[in-house]
C-alpha cells in the first residue's frame, strides 16, 4: 500500500506536510494540579499532572532537582482489538521512559529540589502518533499546572514513503507496508523492515529550538534522515502554533475571571 | 435512582464576562518577555542568550526593574503571615510534617506550638514523647506561616489561640489563587457557620465557634458531640457554594461566600452540585459584586 496517491495526496486527503485537526482543552480535572485533553485527528489523549509535591519514595529523592515520574497507559478500548494490559507492557514502559526523558529536559527541574512531578497520560483512542499526542497533551497539562518549562513542548511523528516525508501519521498509514524506498536506501534493509521508517521528534519551538526527543523506528538511510527530521520539526512547529493558541485562550479566560487584567 | 443529563455549558457564559478578549500582557512558556539589559529576572522567567523568556503561562508583572510572570494556576507559594490549613503526614523528632498543598511538605516545630491548656514553658523530652498525643497523622490543623526555607518549604506555627487542631467540619480544596488575601481569614458567617479560608486553597467549614471555646488552646477535639441537623445542612450548603464558586472561578472571600449562600437558598442543597445551577449562582454573585463596587 502506498502512502501517497499518484497525485500526491494521502488516504485521508491530506498533503504530505499537513497535520491532522487538533482539538484541545486545558483544566479538565478539578483534583489534579493540571490536566488537558487533546485530540489529534482520531487519536484522543488525556493527561494529568500532579505536583510538584513531596517525593513519596525516599530513595528516589534528588537533592538538586525534582523527579519526573510519568505513566503512559492505553485504555483497553483504545485499539480496534481489545487490550488486556493497559500499562506495564514493554511498549508502554518504553514510551513512559521517552516521556520522562523529554520532560526532564523541558521542565526547569532545578527549581524544585527534593520534589516530584507526576505526569499521567492515557490514550483513549489510538489512531497513530500516540507518543507525539501524549507529549503534546502532557505539555498542555504542565502549562495548566503552572510548572516552569523552557517552552511549550510540541511533538510530531513523521514517516517516509518513496523518500518523501509525511508528517502526523494516522493508524492506517502507520501500518502501511512500503514496497520500495528511494534508490539510495539499501534495498536489503528495506526488505527486512516490513513497515515504513517512522520518526517522532519533540521540540521547543520559539525558545531555543532544541530537539528533546528523536525516536526512529525501522532503518532509514542517513542521507534521508535529515530531510525526515526537517519535516518532523516543521510539523512540530505547526502543532506548537495550535497548542499556543489554546493556552492563550485558556489563560485569558482564567485571568479575566480572576480580574487580573486590571493589575 | 434517576439520572439527569444536561448539555455541555458554554464556557464563556459561565465565566460571566461574555466574550473574552485576549490580554495584552500575557505570555506563554518560551515567549520572550524582555531584553535582559536593565531588567532583573523574577519568578516565572529564565534567560536565553541574555534575553528574558517566560517559563510559565500567565501575566507579566513588573515592579521597577523586576520582571515576573504570574501563572494563573500553581501550587501554593507561601508568604510569611499567611493562614493555612494543613494535614499532618508525619511525626518526626521535635517536628511534624504537614501537607499544605505546597511543593514540599511544611514543618511544624514542637517549639512553635502552644501546649494543650495554654501552658507556657520550654518543651521537654516528655513533650517530645507526647507529640503523637497532641497531633496524630491525619489530623487537620490551622496554622500561620512563620518562615520560608531556602528550598521552598515552609515553617508553620500555631502560637495563637485561634490556631490549632480542627475538630468537626468540612474541608474543601480549591485553587490557591482563588483565595483573596485579606486582613482576616477567620469568619463567623451570619448564616450560622464559621469558615477558615486558608491561603493555600484549603477551606475549612465548621459549626459556629463561640469566643470562650476558642481560648482553650486549640487542642480540644470533641468527636462524640453530635452537630444538629440544621447546622450540618448549613455546612453542606456552604461547602457546595464554595465549590461552585471555585469551579466558576469566582474569588473567594467572606462577601462572595455570603452572597452565594443567600442566592443559593432558592435551591435545594444537592441541586447546587449541578453545573448549570452552579453557573447561574456564580453569575448572580458576580453581578451583585459588580453593583456593590460601583
From TrEMBL, chain A:
Q: Which GO terms describe its biological process?
A: nuclear mRNA surveillance; poly(A)-dependent snoRNA 3'-end processing; rRNA catabolic process; U4 snRNA 3'-end processing
Instruction: Just give the chief location class.
Output: cytoplasm
* Locations listed in the record: Cytoplasm; Nucleus, Nucleolus; Nucleus, Nucleoplasm
Q: Which residues form the signal peptide?
A: none
Q: Which GO terms describe its molecular function?
A: RNA binding
Q: Which InterPro entries match?
A: ExoRNase_PH_dom1, ExoRNase_PH_dom2_sf, PNPase/RNase_PH_dom_sf, Ribosomal_Su5_D2-typ_SF, RNase_PH
Tell whether Cytoplasm is among the UniProt keywords: yes
Domain named Exoribonuclease phosphorolytic: which ranges? 18-148
What is one cellular component GO term in this UniProt entry?
nucleolus
Does the keyword Transmembrane helix belong to this entry? Answer: no
Q: Which UniProt keywords apply?
A: Cytoplasm, Exosome
Query: Which family does the record assign?
Result: Belongs to the RNase PH family.
Q: What is its biological role?
A: Non-catalytic component of the RNA exosome complex which has 3'->5' exoribonuclease activity and participates in a multitude of cellular RNA processing and degradation events.
Summarize the subunit comment: Component of the RNA exosome complex.
The name this protein carries in UniProt is: Putative exosome complex component RRP41
Q: Which organism is it from?
A: Plectus sambesii
UniProtKB/TrEMBL annotation, chain B:
Fetch the CDD domains from UniProt: KH-I_Rrp4_eukar, S1_Rrp4
Pfam family, any one: KH_6
Q: Which family does it belong to?
A: Belongs to the RRP4 family.
The K Homology domain covers which part of the protein? 169-206
Q: Does the keyword Magnesium apply?
A: no
The alphabetized list of GO BP terms reads:
CUT catabolic process; exonucleolytic trimming to generate mature 3'-end of 5.8S rRNA from tricistronic rRNA transcript (SSU-rRNA, 5.8S rRNA, LSU-rRNA); nuclear polyadenylation-dependent rRNA catabolic process; poly(A)-dependent snoRNA 3'-end processing; TRAMP-dependent tRNA surveillance pathway; U4 snRNA 3'-end processing
Q: Where in the cell is it found?
A: Nucleus
What range(s) does the RRP4 S1 domain occupy?
75-147
Domain of life, per lineage: Eukaryota
Organism annotation: Plectus sambesii
Please verify whether the record's keywords include tRNA-binding: no
Q: Which Gene3D superfamilies match?
A: 2.40.50.100, Nucleic acid-binding proteins
This entry carries the following GO cellular component terms, namely: cytoplasmic exosome (RNase complex); nuclear exosome (RNase complex)
Where mainly located?
Answer: nucleus
**Protein name stated in the entry:** Ribosomal RNA-processing protein 4
Write out the entry's keywords from A to Z. Answer: Exosome, Nucleus, RNA-binding, rRNA processing
Amino acid at each position: 500500500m502506498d502512502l501517497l496517491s499518484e497525485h500526491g495526496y494521502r488516504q485521508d486527503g491530506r498533503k504530505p506536510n499537513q497535520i491532522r485537526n487538533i482539538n484541545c482543552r486545558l483544566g479538565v480535572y478539578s483534583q489534579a494540579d493540571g490536566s488537558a485533553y487533546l485530540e489529534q485527528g482520531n487519536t484522543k489523549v488525556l493527561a494529568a499532572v500532579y505536583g510538584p509535591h513531596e517525593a513519596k519514595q525516599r530513595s528516589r529523592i534528588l537533592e538538586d532537582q525534582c523527579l519526573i515520574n510519568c505513566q503512559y497507559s492505553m485504555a483497553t478500548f483504545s485499539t480496534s482489538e481489545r487490550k488486556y494490559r493497559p500499562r506495564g507492557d514493554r511498549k508502554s514502559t518504553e514510551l513512559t521512559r521517552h516521556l520522562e526523558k523529554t520532560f526532564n529536559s523541558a521542565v526547569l527541574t532545578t527549581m524544585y529540589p527534593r520534589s516530584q512531578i507526576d505526569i499521567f497520560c492515557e490514550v483513549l483512542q489510538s489512531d497513530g502518533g500516540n507518543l507525539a499526542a501524549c507529549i503534546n497533551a502532557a505539555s498542555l497539562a504542565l502549562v495548566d499546572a503552572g510548572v516552569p518549562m523552557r517552552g511549550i513542548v510540541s511533538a510530531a511523528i513523521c514517516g517516509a514513503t518513496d523518500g518523501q516525508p509525511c508528517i502526523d501519521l494516522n493508524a492506517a498509514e502507520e501500518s502501511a507496508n512500503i514496497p520500495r524506498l528511494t534508490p539510495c536506501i539499501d534495498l536489503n534493509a528495506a526488505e527486512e523492515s516490513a513497515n515504513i521508517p517512522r520518526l517522532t521528534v519533540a521540540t521547543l519551538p520559539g525558545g531555543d529550538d532544541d530537539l528533546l526527543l528523536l525516536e526512529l523506528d525501522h532503518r532509514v538511510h542517513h542521507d534521508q534522515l535529515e530531510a525526515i527530521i526537517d519535516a518532523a520539526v516543521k510539523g512540530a512547529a505547526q502543532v506548537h502554533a495550535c497548542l499556543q493558541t489554546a493556552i492563550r485562550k485558556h489563560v485569558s479566560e482564567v485571568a479575566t475571571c480572576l480580574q487580573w487584567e486590571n493589575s | 435512582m434517576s439520572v439527569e443529563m444536561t448539555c455541555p455549558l458554554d464556557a464563556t457564559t459561565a465565566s460571566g464576562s461574555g466574550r473574552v478578549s485576549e490580554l495584552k500582557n500575557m505570555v506563554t512558556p518560551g515567549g520572550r518577555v524582555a531584553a535582559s539589559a536593565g531588567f532583573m529576572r523574577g519568578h516565572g522567567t529564565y534567560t536565553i542568550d541574555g534575553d528574558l523568556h517566560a517559563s510559565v503561562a500567565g501575566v507579566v508583572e513588573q515592579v521597577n526593574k523586576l520582571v515576573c510572570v504570574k501563572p494563573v494556576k500553581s501550587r501554593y507559594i507561601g508568604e510569611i503571615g499567611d493562614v493555612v490549613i494543613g494535614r499532618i503526614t508525619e511525626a518526626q523528632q521535635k517536628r511534624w510534617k504537614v501537607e499544605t498543598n505546597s511543593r514540599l511538605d511544611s514543618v511544624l516545630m514542637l517549639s512553635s506550638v502552644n501546649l494543650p491548656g495554654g501552658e507556657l514553658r520550654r518543651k521537654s523530652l516528655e513533650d517530645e514523647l507526647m507529640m503523637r498525643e497532641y497531633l496524630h497523622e491525619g489530623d487537620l490543623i490551622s496554622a500561620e506561616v512563620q518562615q520560608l526555607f531556602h528550598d521552598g518549604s515552609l515553617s508553620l506555627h500555631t502560637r495563637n489561640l485561634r490556631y490549632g487542631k480542627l475538630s468537626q467540619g468540612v474541608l474543601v480544596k480549591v485553587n490557591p489563587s482563588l483565595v483573596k488575601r485579606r486582613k482576616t481569614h477567620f469568619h463567623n458567617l451570619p448564616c450560622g457557620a464559621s469558615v477558615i479560608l486558608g491561603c493555600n486553597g484549603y477551606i475549612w467549614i465548621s459549626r459556629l465557634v463561640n469566643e470562650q471555646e476558642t481560648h482553650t488552646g486549640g487542642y480540644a477535639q470533641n468527636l462524640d458531640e453530635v452537630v444538629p441537623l440544621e447546622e450540618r445542612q448549613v455546612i453542606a450548603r456552604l461547602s457546595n457554594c464554595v465549590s461552585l464558586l471555585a469551579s466558576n472561578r469566582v474569588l473567594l472571600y467572606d462577601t462572595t461566600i455570603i452572597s452565594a449562600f443567600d442566592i443559593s437558598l432558592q435551591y435545594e442543597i444537592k441541586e447546587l452540585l449541578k453545573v448549570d445551577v452552579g453557573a447561574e449562582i456564580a453569575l448572580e454573585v458576580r453581578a451583585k459584586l459588580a453593583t456593590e463596587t460601583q
